[in-house]
Amino acid sequence: MSSQWINAIVRLAYRMADWVATVALGKLSYAQTNIPNPNNALQALWAPLLLLHLGGPDTITAYSLEDNQLWIRHLLGMGVQANVAIYVIVMSWRHFWFSFMLIPAFVAGIIKYGERTWALTLACHDKFGYIVPFYYLMAGSMKDKDRYKNVLIMAHMMVKKFKRYIENYDIGRFSFEVPHRTSEEPKFLAEMNRDDDTCLGDVLEVEMGLMYDLLYTKVAITFTKRGCIFRSISFMCTVSVLVGLFRLIAMK
After folding, report:
1. What is the CA radius of gyration of the chain?
2. Inter-axis angle of helices 147-162 and 200-216, to 10 degrees?
3. What span, in angstroms and rounded, lies between the C-alpha atoms of 217 and 196?
4. What is the pTM of this model?
5. Do the Cβ atoms of 168 and 176 come closer than 8 Å?
6. What are the helix (H) ranges across the chain?
């Protein structure tokens, strides 16, 4: 019973995240327009922080497979929220050095929100399994007797091979096309049967974990070159805003 309550609370929080951020951005835009405040720049800092909130944590981007297929809605939502955040920043701009801190904060928020939309898009349109990390690993790499390495390699191969069964998933119907067998599959199966040190149960466990990460988290973009570049930019922008905030507090 307790697990059901926890599941319901997590689901409710996931569904309400976008709504809460939308209401908060609307309130900020109204306050910047109609309520004079000498600390408008500090108050406007909440706008890009809400974009960071909409980006969500790295451990969850979707709650179900259908959420991945709604990536266009998230993209449109990102555009609307970004425009509102820009409006708040412009309306709160003052000839004060801290106003410039809103720019890196906005960049970090857009990158964070964009990561989520990017992950949803990849999970929905990855027809060839390229989002599987280390997808270039093959059974031929299993040259040593390292059991854990062999389990990881085989799990990666199984994810890449069996992920195509989910590609034709559509709302309201299930259409699973059996993929054509390739010359690699007999070698792969033979390698599994020959290797006594590799337990099929361990392989399936790792495979399910990888599949969950690819469909419901940001792993698909975190371990890419572009993902690392954007993550580094976002981190540097966040640190610069934090340093500027500490300086502003010290001056007061």
Report:
1. 23
2. 50
3. 33
4. 0.76
5. yes
6. 2-34, 40-44, 46-55, 65-69, 71-91, 102-125, 147-162, 164-167, 184-194, 200-216, 219-222, 225-251
